[in-house]
Design a protein that fits this description.
With 336 residues, the chain is α/β, with parallel strands linked by helices. The chain has two domains: 135 residues, NAD(P)-binding Rossmann-like Domain (Rossmann fold, 3-Layer(aba) Sandwich), CATH 3.40.50.720; 179 residues, 3-Layer(aba) Sandwich (Rossmann fold), CATH 3.40.50. It is 35% helix and 15% strand. It is built from twelve helices and twelve strands. The protein has a seven-stranded parallel β-sheet with strand order 8-7-6-9-10-11-12, sandwiched between helices. Strands 2-1-3-4-5 form a five-stranded parallel β-sheet. Helix 9 links the parallel strand 9 and strand 10. The protein starts with 6 loop residues before the first strand and ends in a 5-residue tail after the last helix. The model has no long low-confidence stretch (mean pLDDT 95).
Length: 336
């Protein structure tokens, strides 16, 4: 550990207390000054930012250039989950601040498995089949279900979750395409597509990209209208990437369309949202890919990420690798 106590602040809602608890206990036992906040304004009012060495933040405080400049000791910004949209990556990299997350194999595997589940549940209209049993109504004379075999699945974003999804979709015999913003070699059998082509030609569209300035609002009303009338649209990423109101209008106009949404903007989804009135939508409250396996591992990786950052060791899951060389030279143990 470092030769002097460090200041580490944990920012997250009450639902993250269980994840934070072990890490906070462990760091306090090492003699560090540890803060816990559920409100961004309260954190800024505490004046702890000026002495923070590491900040753990999930959905509480957007941390941009101004906050970083007010934190001269800040060496790392850490998210316990995969998403890091609270942090300005460009500003952090320019200031030699490392960004790390909790992108464990359990995390991205559970999200990929959940995406497959939502695709199949939508194609087979599993939710409607349950209502026939619940209300005693007669099943349809002609089936409405569709196979995944021979369908085209377009994936928006091909990070760890997207790649894990590709591996799990291969055995189904479907065609695979992907839209990625940074040109690179794609996995075998995955066709590179423009966003417009993907939306126009895919039978299933899966949003699996990260939320950042380039993807926020990427799927507006115009883009969504390009999709097939009977498309299955799955979003397991972030609600702000697509437009909830446009999705609700489109799905109401196109009864053969199927929505499977685990994320919304804002969250939680308003009780009066038109999405809730749709008969062709599966809605889950940003939890469909949350598993015990992920949550059991998450506190361990969180603590490890913080401890590594404090002694100048690069954490396992770095989101801005361009900073690593300069960061290591500045913060390795004994350099400060």
């Amino acid at each position: 550990m470092t030769s002097h106590p460090s200041t580490i602040d944990f920012l997250g809602g009450d639902d993250f207390s269980g994840i934070f608890e072990d890490a906070i206990r462990g760091l306090k036992a090492q003699g560090h000054d540890v803060g816990r906040f559920t409100d961004g304004r309260a954190y800024l009012a505490s004046n702890r930012l000026a002495r923070a060495d590491v900040i753990v933040d999930v959905d509480v405080l957007p941390i941009g250039a101004a906050e970083m400049d007010a934190a001269p000791r800040l060496r790392a910004l850490i998210s316990p989950v995969i998403g890091t949209e609270e942090f300005d990556h460009s500003a952090a990299t320019a200031r030699n601040i490392l960004i790390a997350n909790g992108q464990t194999v359990e995390n991205y595997t559970s999200m990929a498995e959940a995406a497959v589940m939502l695709i199949l549940a939508s194609l087979y209209e599993f939710d409607r089949a349950l209502t026939y049993m619940a209300d005693g109504s007669r099943r349809p004379d002609y089936p409405r279900a569709r196979t995944l075999m021979n369908r085209k699945v377009g994936i928006i974003g091909l990070g760890k979750i997207g790649q894990a999804l590709v591996e799990r979709l291969r055995p189904f015999g479907c065609a695979l395409g992907a839209f990625v913003r940074t040109a690179r070699a794609l996995p075998d059998g995955v066709a590179a597509m423009s966003l417009e082509e993907l939306l126009r030609t895919s039978d299933v569209v899966v949003v699996a990209t990260e939320l950042n300035d380039r993807t926020r609002g990427m799927l507006g009303a115009g883009e969504l209208a390009l999709m097939k009338p009977d498309v299955v649209f799955v979003n397991i990423a972030r609600g702000a990437i697509s437009n909830d109101h446009a999705l609700a209008r489109l799905a109401a106009e196109r009864p053969a369309m199927r929505l499977a949404l685990d994320v919304f903007d804002p969250e939680p989804l308003d009780i009066s949202s038109p999405l809730r009135a749709l008969g062709n939508a599966i809605l889950t409250p940003h939890m469909v890919g949350h598993t015990r396996d992920t949550f059991d591992r998450m506190p361990l990786i969180l603590l490890e990420n913080v401890e590594r950052a404090l002694v100048g060791e690069v954490p396992q899951f770095v989101c801005n690798p361009a900073v690593v060389e300069g960061w290591s030279g500045k913060w390795r143990e004994g350099a400060v």
